[in-house]
Amino acid sequence: MNEKFDAVVVGAGPAGSAAALTLARAGLKVILLERGEYPGAKNVFGGVLYRQQIEELVPDFLSEKNPPIERYIVEQRMWMMGKDSSTMLSHRNAAYSSPYNCFTGLRAKFDQWFAEKAVAAGALPVYETCAVDVIREGDRVVGVRTDREDGDIYADVVIIADGVNSLLGKAMGVHREWNPDEVSLAVKEIIMLPKEKIEDRFGVEGDEGVTVEFMGETSKGMAGMGFMYTNKESISLGIGVMVGHLREKKVKPHELLDEVKKHPSIRKLIQGGEVKEYAAHLIPEGGFHSIPPMSGSGWCITGDAAQLVNFVHREGTNLAMVSGRLAAEAVIACKAKGDFSAAAMKQYDQAIRASFVMADLKKYKGMHKLLKEQDPELLFERLPRAVNQAAYEMFLVDGATKAEKQKKAMQLIKQAAGGTMNLVKLGVKGWRSING
Ligand code: FAD
């Protein structure tokens, strides 16, 4: 391609489309590259999208005829799983409908819709095209090499938004291959169920929806988390586990998911459903310490490619959108000055460091260390099992006094932790890990 662009955005996921939309609206000449047949064709996520960050880019999206959302979430549940038991915490609030907080969605629909906004604003879409490397002049990035014949594309700046595997990030040496403790492998099924069954089983009506996150014996002593989200006429059910632990235990993730589906707290909710889709994908979970340099001369990196995922709160799409938007705003400022040097591109680093994205990842920066260093069987097997046994004791009416029951429940938890001191130490480490 002989034409030169102001920017080439690699990847039409939430980060890339947010960047392309912001650039195109500002009148910059931008090309949006996507390796899939269409945006979202192969993309996988659990299913929760956040209103505020979408509205920052598409302010009136909820008043559209068919916004790309499945259900709006009125209730969020967290379950601690024993083998045949679960201890549940949930929060339901009518206030989540005014304004909406978050929604379930399907990537094949959402990503196409979102990329279409960028295209409507003037971005040039080029799909089924893979960027394989950057083109450099000296230390300056001046474009990308694609897998098409004569497929070199030149631009003042390359915005890398190619997701967790980030071929481009690796090719540039911005980051290395992620370590097995910096990524989780998640498997997910979409299980079709009639609308009425979903409403009955999850206690919702109309377009209301529920999220469930679960941890404990379902991940078989490995660091991991499961999820179950309601769509209009389907359930998204999945589980993600740290890759290092999967390798150590030689467990196949789809076998874990098969086990999850048999758990009594889950089986009845998906009963009679038909599996329509199965997918597997990595989730970046290295956190703050795994974030690579965010920009350089003629380039910047966004979203999953930069490890911008807050796995504690299952936030990824919103962080990707914010980083894409902030990257584009920095590029617009660089364009105005005609300066895309490393020093000028630092505006993006500054903006993202000043945003909630980096503040949140920094807050949880100790979490990755905790998960790496603690015995996963303690956190994801023995303690959840003990919590469930303790709950069972407390609710069982068997003639024992309540004081005896309380003592037994505490004993179960202390025993699981290896004694009172270990429990206290774990509590302190846990507290520190979520407080920067
Ligand atoms: P991606 O969404 O991965 O998009 C990257 C795009 O780049 C893709 O379209 C890809 O095809 C394209 N691409 C890749 N390489 C190239 C190349 N070389 N050339 C051209 N195109 C390329 N987040 C949430 O907010 N809520 C959730 O409920 C949630 N659940 C999740 C559950 C699972 C199982 C997984 C895997 C992730 C989940 N996430 C969730 C995280 C979320 O999906 C990501 O954080 C988010 O999609 C990141 O957006 P992105 O644009 O950076 O990357």
Oligomer: single chain
Q: How many alpha or pi helices?
A: 15
CATH class of the largest domain: Alpha Beta
Low-confidence stretches: none
Count the strands?
17
Distance between the termini: 47 Å
Structural class: alpha/beta
Radius of gyration: 23 Å
Quick one: CATH superfamily of the largest domain? Answer: FAD/NAD(P)-binding domain
Mean pLDDT: 96
Count of separate structural domains? 3
Structural notes for this entry:
The chain is α/β, with parallel strands linked by helices and 436 residues long. The chain has three domains: 4-69 and 105-178 and 287-363, 3-Layer(bba) Sandwich (FAD/NAD(P)-binding domain), CATH 3.50.50.60; 183-284, 2-Layer Sandwich (D-Amino Acid Oxidase, Chain A, domain 2); 367-433, no CATH class. Helix content is 39%, strand content 25%. Strands 1, 2, 7, 8, 9, 10, 16 and 17 form an eight-stranded mixed β-sheet that branches. The protein has a seven-stranded mixed β-sheet with strand order 5-4-12-13-14-11-15. It has a two-stranded antiparallel sheet with strand order 3-6. A hairpin with a 7-residue loop joins strand 12 (208-216) and strand 13 (224-230). The longest helix is centred in the C-terminal third of the chain and has 21 residues, at 317-337. The model has no long low-confidence stretch (mean pLDDT 96). The site of flavin-adenine dinucleotide has 42 residues, from helix 1, helix 4, strand 11, strand 14 and strand 15.
Short description:
This protein has three domains: 4-69 and 105-178 and 287-363, FAD/NAD(P)-binding domain, CATH 3.50.50.60; 183-284, D-Amino Acid Oxidase, Chain A, domain 2 (2-Layer Sandwich); 367-433, no CATH class. It is 39% helix and 25% strand. The protein contains 15 helices and 17 strands.
